[in-house]
Amino acid sequence: MSASSPAVALPSAPWLKALKRLNAVDIVLWALRIAVLLVIVAGTIGCVVKGRYTAAQWVDFVVFGLTIGSIYAQIALGYTMVYGVLRLINFAHGDFVMTGAFAGYFIAVPLDQSGFLQRQPVLAMAAILVVAIATSTSVALLTERIAYRPFRRVTGLAPLICAIGVSFFLQQTFRGMFGSAVKSYPEPQWQRAAFNVFGFNVPRIDVILIALALLFMLALYLIVHRTRMGTAMRAVAEDAEAAALMGIDVNKVIVFTFILGGAMAGIAGVFYAFLYKQVYFFMGFTPGIKAFGAAVLGGIGSIPGAMLGGFFLGLVESVGPALFLDGIGITAPYQLRDLIAFTLLIMVLIFRPHGLLGERLSKKRA
Amino acid sequence: MIRTAIVRGLLFGAVGLHLAVVGVLLMLHQRWIIIDTISLGQAVLVLLAIGAGVMAAPTNAPEAPPARLLFGLIAGAAASLPLAALMVAMDLVRLQAVFIALSHDLFEMLSFDLGDFLGVLALIGGGAVGGLAGAVLQHTPPGIRRAVIAGAAAVVVAGVFQELIQLMLQFEGLIGDIRDFFYTWEGLSPQGAAVVFAITAIVSQVRSAASRRNQAALTDQQRQRQRMIRALLCLAGLAVLPALAGSYIGQVLMLVGLFILMGMCLNLDVGLAGLLDLGFVAFFAVGAYATALLTADNPHALLHLSYWAAMPIAVLLSICMGVIFGIPVLGVRGDYLAVATMGLGEIVRVIVLSDFASPLLGGAQGLLQIPKPALGGFTLGSPVSLFYLTLVASGVAAFVAWRLENSRLGRAWMALRDDEDVAQALGINLIRSKLMAYGLGAAFAGLAGSIFAVMLGSVYPSSFQLLISINVLALIIVGGMGSLPGVALGSIALIGLPELLREFGEYRYLFYGAVLIIMMRLRPEGLWPSEARRRELHGSDESLALDAGSDLLPAQRT
Asked: Are A176 and B551 an interchain contact pair (Cβ–Cβ within 8 Å)?
């Protein structure tokens, strides 16, 4: 505002101009940036100086980060695709994950008790995944039909509030059907062993989950980029009205998007449950919000961006407590793991809402 | 048309099936409306069948009336089909191993204790009768229909709240005799129900006739005055009720008052300024924790102030928190703002729960032994006296909100809500008005938190979950965004009712989720909308396409 007074004759170096335009809000934002940076740098230095963690522990952190990151990536894909075609934050997506995990649970337990899960891991996992995908996809389709379709042309807060309602409705429905207790997922013998890579123990379950996640994400990428339907989907994401004029059935594309997103959510739910060994009705909420952050970080609407964002978030969340927080002397840093993830989410929303790979969409929003 | 009737019936049946599988139906079955005759759960089933009948036989259908009644019959039968299928499935497989709500009790309820085969037939037959009744009701003259509905509603209310009403009628003598005529221990007696039905039906007939004659003669001004008087009477009733009805009602009303207060503060943010703040429970937590730290009688406390000294400090701290939270998210809009604020709220909860902050804030054990406020030697210890505290606080908040609504700031907020860019172009200071919204909202939330702390006498991190934010959001949406009476109505409906129907508490959030979806679809302006909002939503139809599938293109937000 003061920059509009040209009478002041000062050397007009560009940095000075920028300084003059600085207001209180910018100062606070810069302070925030610097504070976060300071915590990261000081924490890292502190951590290196202290040297409390062994190399094996660091490998553990990284492997776990990649595993949980691969799951976040799969969830983030659902957010990003739906946002691409509908411009709607599917708040209930985390709960699609939960429905998949529950459906998988009710197949996994009898398979485990009969010993089938132990004897035929591939077939059993396939069965669990198929049921989980079927459940979460049907839930996603029902949600789309009942709660989202009426809001296609409505702007403002109504669609988002409706999505929040769906999220609670799904959680409480599952709570009513299956109870509020935490159920423990079966853990067959073959998951417990560890691989030995360069002298480090890497849990076998992590390797399996990462490999499968990469496989499914590759499949999704090929569907979106190589098939007719995928092309139509990208066209709708680019410009829905023009796509409709070109003869694309937008409705079909949206349904297809929810099928893909629901399927990824179901897979992610089973993986998440196998990693943490438990299911309960509220389990979808936190990974859902975090994965949304990952989707925004990667650039919402961008499929490679969502994958990248997911892995990045998983790594930061897993390595962060030891690297940044322990270094500055915070007790029990692992309790603050979610703090790191949520801080990352907020920082992304504030400072880079268009994400790393999402320039195209950000221009439309701005 | 038969196809539509079946489809609509099946939709209602799906709702029934959901209620059964989730366990709501059986829970409602525990409550009698008319003793040994009909329970609340059965009433819900009947209502679903009637609803299906009403939907399947619209008065403007092309068919002749007898055919429409047939459609009602078919729709009602279709509405009970999903539940009948569930019964057959329950008979064949032990579903309870997976679905915990599908117990033998539920089977007995659905089969009316008639066994497998007869029970299924009875369910379908009952559904058909209900559907027929719905269709008949649809085609009766409006006067009679209104009387029947009013009578039935009165019976349901008198039956469902029998515990409360009986509690208030604990007298000997004549009142006791009247009570014994209407009520047995667990519900309405059949003769009582008949009398309630008859009286309400007649009263509603007489009243509607009288009001029709009167309404025509009134001017707008008189009508408005009438509405004011009615609102004041309600308020006076609300003020006197807890003193008469005892501490249980007092406790419920205290909670209602607290949520009215919070509803008003979220109303400023969401209703007026259009900032969907889901992290607003954080300010509530700040108010509560500040009060606890300043007054509590435990080692964590920093000072031992009196409540009246601590409350303003708590409110001030909340305002600071609101501004501190508000500054970074100034540039974040719409749905991103909702997620960002939710993240902020979660961060506060994670920090409070962690061992890192527990030396200061007590960790998961919370802070205990917060003394009750005293007012000149009189301790506000009982729920009823605390209710009056919330009433005063809500009064202040309502006054502030009411004065703000039509002030320069309030209009700036509304402009901001409608279009941020245009508002800025018109010279509205975005930063200032947004921070004012966050600050004021946080102030009321802090006040509510402060009262909450003394109400419970202790604060725990588990009290400050996202659920509170959703709770408050749901109540302002039900009541009507931006409308003060709406907040009170929403709070009574969403906080008071579940507290009164205690067994319902477990399913409260299921209900909230459904309410959010249904309200957004059917009545986005709320039950008691503010005038401006009503005009906005119904004045220009082109901005809102609320009917399903009107156009299949996604919204292009720019």
From this structure: no
